């Protein structure tokens, strides 16, 4: 059976991707720094998902994760979903914050891709990089996060350019608001500010001008990521697909007319 690796597979989008891959018949290795969430994910489909705690920015650790995945058969896909950190303006971002943000958002994907590429090239596999709407837009005071997510698209394009003749495809998905634990924490800021009383109210506030008028569920993003990982997208590479309920098409200067 074909195997897949999902970084950041313990929660949120990564967990949803792992579960969807398992439902589709893949053997999945989920990895991340915290063992407990990974084990929780694996427990939901123990016959298909294996948890391996590892820092995706560590080369030796990711080499070991790849070898673990190969124990179940050829490697067919890598989905990089690790990330976070980097919420301050350029002027207020410290050297430490800058370094940790790029490590979490960019280096984890780079190291994971580098480790997996030889195995993926053996069978013509697929890489799916989970970026963000922040990869094509900028939110207030999110320097490290925004820069890292932008850079992920460059990484994806380079892999698509270099890996194509080996049959390796690379694509990126850019979600907008998705109801995940990380996004819930951001909604908590609005609640603390008194701008919303509940998580539902906070999500309604941040999606007020989104054409579909709501945040995504992780499973909706997972469906797209799994399509890109699998054979149904066999001629698709180098693509950046935005999944944000239409937020990116909104012309901000015309909001007053809406």
UniProtKB/TrEMBL annotation:
Molecular function as annotated in GO: oxidoreductase activity
Keywords: NAD, Oxidoreductase
UniProt entry tagged with the keyword rRNA processing: no
Cited InterPro entries: KR_dom (IPR057326), NAD(P)-bd_dom_sf (IPR036291), Sc_DH/Rdtase_CS (IPR020904), SDR_fam (IPR002347)
Domain Ketoreductase: 3-184
Ranges annotated as spanning the membrane: none
Pfam families (alphabetical): adh_short_C2 (PF13561)
Protein family according to the UniProt entry: Belongs to the short-chain dehydrogenases/reductases (SDR) family.
Protein name: NAD(P)-dependent dehydrogenase, short-chain alcohol dehydrogenase family
């Amino acid at each position: 059976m074909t195997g897949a690796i999902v970084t950041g597979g313990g929660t949120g989008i990564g967990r949803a991707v792992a579960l969807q891959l398992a439902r589709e018949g893949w053997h999945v290795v989920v990895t991340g720094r915290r063992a407990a969430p990974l084990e929780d994910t694996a427990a939901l489909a123990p016959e298909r998902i294996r948890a391996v705690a590892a820092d995706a920015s560590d080369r030796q650790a990711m080499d070991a994760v790849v070898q673990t995945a190969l124990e179940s058969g050829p490697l067919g896909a890598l989905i990089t979903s690790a990330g976070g950190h980097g919420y301050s303006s350029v002027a207020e971002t410290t050297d430490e914050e800058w370094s940790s943000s790029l490590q979490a958002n960019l280096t984890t994907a780079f190291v994971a891709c580098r480790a997996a590429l030889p195995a993926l090239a053996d069978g013509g596999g697929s890489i799916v990089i989970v970026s963000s709407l922040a990869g094509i837009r900028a939110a207030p005071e999110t320097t490290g996060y925004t820069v890292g997510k932008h850079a992920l698209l460059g990484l994806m394009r380079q892999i698509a350019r270099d890996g194509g003749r080996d049959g390796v495809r690379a694509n990126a998905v850019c979600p907008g608001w998705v109801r995940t634990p990380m996004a819930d924490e951001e909604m908590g800021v609005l609640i603390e500010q008194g701008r919303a009383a509940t998580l539902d109210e906070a999500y309604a506030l941040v999606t007020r001008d989104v054409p579909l008028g709501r945040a995504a569920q992780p499973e909706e993003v997972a469906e797209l990521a799994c399509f890109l990982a699998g054979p149904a997208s066999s001629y698709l590479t180098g693509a950046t697909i935005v999944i944000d309920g239409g937020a990116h098409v909104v012309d901000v200067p015309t909001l007053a007319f809406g």
